[in-house]
Design a protein that fits this description.
This protein is mainly alpha-helical. The protein has helices at about 1-25, 30-35, 50-80, 85-100, 110-120, 125-140, 150-160, 170-175, 185-210, 215-235, 240-270, 275-290, 295-310, 310-325, 335-340, 345-360, 365-375, 380-390, 400-425. About 75% of the residues lie in helices and about 0% in strands.
Length: about 425
């Protein structure tokens, strides 16, 4: 119900703002831009696709997902038949059994979730999505009310949306392409923000579900992860931009190949029909991609209407005026468009980040903060629409509120770290 109200609100607000601009400010073309506008049309001042183009984009995105989902779910099927998922479940069981008390010991969903979190950690978006959808599917098997999100699904999705990631490779690459003097200077702030956001998401959901986070097992795992992150920070800070890019590529892509190798080897060892298992899983990937098309179209169209109507511009101007009136430093406001649109669309947020760099310079405070915003969270509404849509969940309970609150914690942390790291030097 919450998602339905938010979606309706997006559409209503967008049309009202567009009507005000049309009838009171003389922007007579705004309705055309909202419906049939194209981002590459020089006469379209919004530089955003309208409703029709967005529908096509949504379907194209799902078509591209078909291949990725088929591939990874195919390998996941081999791993399940070979017992690899059960092995992962036993390894993470002591920790996950505390965070997910409703999941039976050794259930395959634990393995699916750890695969998703691992892919997210390494910035492997293409792998994280199919692993995450498989995790939602396996959690749905345990869900007594098939149309209402279970506690386990809420915890998983909030942790996933927090987007804990080790190295923001795409942000570093874009900053390098924009000739930033030190493209990697946002690495540590991004890592800290994603870690804080993940801890915030875990805490928020744990409070709602009355889970005690001070249990020795949970504390031990969190401290261990913190130690690994600290060692990675120590190592990566000794590398230059090209070194970080090379290290990240070798680590992430090498891990994918290693996983494929281990899965096939395990399947052969267990004497299963490896290719038949792959085909069964790949078919499931195709069906999942088709199933999420309506959810993706609905959400992306609403987001497109918000952007083309100029609603974001109104919000940003209002925030800037408030902080200027209070006499506060308003440099962070110039980067806020990236933070505000990040929960709605990763591609749009990336575009906002590039626009900020172009307008203020790659080494400006606003550009660095924009890069931290881009590298430090996931697309909340996209995640909700796709993941819950894949298992036909209609009642998402407090998922939206918990995710947005965790996003807010991340935004505030990012602003504070930007001033700490770059505030006095720029």
């Amino acid at each position: 119900m919450a998602l339905s109200r938010i979606w309706s609100g997006f559409i209503i607000v967008a049309i009202v703002v567009a009507a005000i601009k049309c009838f009171f400010f003389g922007q007579s073309e705004i309705f055309s831009w909202m419906v049939v506008g194209k981002a590459d049309d020089p006469t379209n001042l919004t530089k955003v696709n309208g409703i029709i183009e967005t529908c096509w984009t949504s379907v194209e995105l799902c078509l591209k997902l078909i291949g990725i989902l088929a591939l990874f779910m195919g390998f996941m099927s081999i791993a399940e038949r070979a017992g690899g998922i059960r092995l992962l479940s036993r390894i993470v069981g002591p920790f996950f059994s505390k965070l997910f008390p409703e999941i039976p010991k050794g259930h395959p969903s634990m393995g699916h979730m750890i695969m998703n979190f691992s892919a997210n950690l390494l910035g492997l978006d293409n792998a994280a999505t199919p692993f995450g959808l498989k995790a939602m599917e396996s959690l749905q098997e345990l869900n007594p009310n098939k149309e209402t999100a279970s506690n386990s699904q809420l915890m998983f999705l909030c942790l996933h949306a927090a987007g804990l990631s080790l190295i923001p490779v795409s942000v570093i690459a874009i900053r390098a392409s924009q000739n930033a003097s030190d493209p990697t200077d946002i690495f540590i702030p991004c890592l800290i923000v994603t870690f804080v956001g993940t801890m915030a998401a875990m805490t928020i959901v744990s409070i709602k579900q009355k889970i005690n986070l001070f249990q020795p097992v949970i504390v031990g795992w969190i401290l261990s992860i913190s130690a690994i992150i600290a060692m990675l920070v120590w190592y990566v800070t000794s590398l230059d931009a090209s070194g970080i890019k090379s290290f990240s590529g070798m680590l992430s892509n090498g891990l994918i190949l290693f996983v494929f190798f281990a899965i096939v080897l395990g399947g052969i060892y267990k004497k299963i029909d490896v290719f038949d298992a792959f085909i069964d899983g790949a078919k499931n990937g195709f069906e999942t991609a088709v199933k999420i098309i309506p959810y993706l179209v609905g959400m992306l169209v609403a987001i497109s209407m918000l952007r083309t109507s100029g609603t974001f511009d109104v919000v940003i101007l209002g925030i800037k005026n408030v902080f200027a009136f209070l006499g506060a430093d308003t440099r962070f406001v110039e980067a806020l468009p990236t933070a505000l649109i990040r929960p709605l669309s990763g591609g749009a947020a990336r575009g906002m980040m590039v626009d900020t760099m172009t307008a203020y310079g790659a080494d400006s405070f606003a550009s660095k903060l924009s890069g931290i915003f881009q590298g430090a969270s996931d697309t909340t509404f996209y995640v909700i629409a796709v993941y819950f849509g894949s298992v036909s969940i209609k009642n998402t309970r407090y998922a939206v509120g918990a995710m947005l609150l965790a996003d807010l914690v991340g935004v505030c942390t990012a602003i504070g770290l930007a001033y700490l790291f770059f505030g006095s030097s720029l």
